[in-house]
Specification:
This protein has about 130 residues and is mainly α. About 25% of the residues are buried.
Length: about 130
Amino acid sequence: MKKYIPLALRIIVALILIQTLRFKFSAHPDSVYIFETVGLEPIGRIGIGILELIAGILLLIPKTVWVGASLTLGIIGGAIIMHLTQLGIDVKGDGGLLFGTAVFTFILSAIILFLYKKDIPFLNNRV
């Protein structure tokens, strides 16, 4: 059972990242609003979408899990900071769902990175 938990966490985070891509790549009005508010529309929306796609794929490949988790922490950490500084917790009346999902994804990514720390090449001898 223990060996399936890390896989389940990876799949959950990858699904969260990948399911949000339809909003970013289709220029959904809510996504455009968010990126306009933080001054990154449209290049930031598309660029971050591409990075989220890459992170989601890397999380599903056993040898690159740590890279995908690290990339996810950076992307989602930036999203959390944007929520706390420019967007607010409640974006367009969503009741904080987007922010909560970001925090949830950040925590799961941190757990994944911790579980796969032995795979990080430059930490291999120190952990």
